[in-house]
Amino acid sequence: MMKKNLLSLFTLLSFAAFSQSLSVNPESYYYSMASETCIAHFDVTNQTDQDLSVIVTRNMDPSYNITSTFCWGETCYIPTANVSTNSIVIPAGESSDQFSGYIYSMPEESSFVINYCFSLENNPSDKVCTDVTFTSLSSVMNLEELSADYNVYPNPVKDLLYIDYNASVPAKFVLYDMLGSKVHQDVLTSSTTLNLSSFEAGIYFYTFGVQGKETEVQKLIITH
Q1: Which region, left, alpha or beta, applies to residue 195 given φ > 0 means left and ψ of -120 to 50 means alpha?
Q2: How far is 54 from 121, CA to CA, in rounded Å?
Q3: pTM as predicted
Q4: Fewer Cβ atoms within 10 A, N terminus or C terminus of the chain?
Q5: What are the pLDDT digits (tens) for 3-40?
Q6: pLDDT, tens digit, for every residue of 37-59?
Q7: 61: Cα separation from own chain's centroid
Q8: Are 164 and 191 in contact (CB under 8 A)?
Q9: What is the C-alpha separation between 25 and 122, in angstroms, rounded?
């Protein structure tokens, strides 16, 4: 698992400023190995009681010698685009998981900070901005240390799913249905038990993530 003292080596921490209407909660950083695609994916939440039409603006240091893109909703933009031309509607009180930021072919032992702002289409001053850190630093992310120390059982499961987890950093457990839609999410700091009795029987999938790095997708069968 990741050791606590690794975090002290990482000085480029994510910063988020919250608007009245929107909030975001990205990971402290997103990791990939050199030459791979580094992906940042996090939710954008509508904190109001009205549906909101939201756009994205990207701010990036022009000196960065990288290829970076982002997707908002069903539209993925070319590397030179800094503002989404299409908005998406986030229903009142709900969150959208339709944002992704990318850096392709991450340079070796490097970190880059890209700022993303989410604003109301009809009121650009009502926005939330966050610095997102993409990194390939081995001092930050040791793959062996990040081999998640967890166990999800039983599988198949009837009603109660047990997740054993003992580590010094929070982990994210996400459950998806057959269509790839997120149906449950938990942030874990210790072992827990999930009651799945309200879920329809069938095939589901889950990921287990630590500090922005997710395990491979695993299959979970629910029976009642």
Answers
A1: beta
A2: 5
A3: 0.59
A4: C
A5: 333 333 333 333 344 458 999 988 888 888 889 899 99
A6: 999 999 999 999 999 999 999 99
A7: 22
A8: yes
A9: 23
Q: For residue 93, give the DSSP letter.
A: T
**Inter-CA distances, 31 with 43, 102, 140, 196, 223, Å:** 18, 11, 8, 31, 36
Domains contained in the chain, CATH given? 4-135 (2.60.40.10), 150-222 (2.60.40.3080)
* Token code pair at residue 205: 């999938």
Residue 140 one-letter amino acid: V
Are 160 and 195 contacting, i.e. CB atoms less than 8 angstroms apart?
yes
- Tell me the two tokens of residue 193: 């038990």
- Given the structure tokens 């939440």, which residue do they identify? 45
Q: Name 58's bridge partners.
A: 116
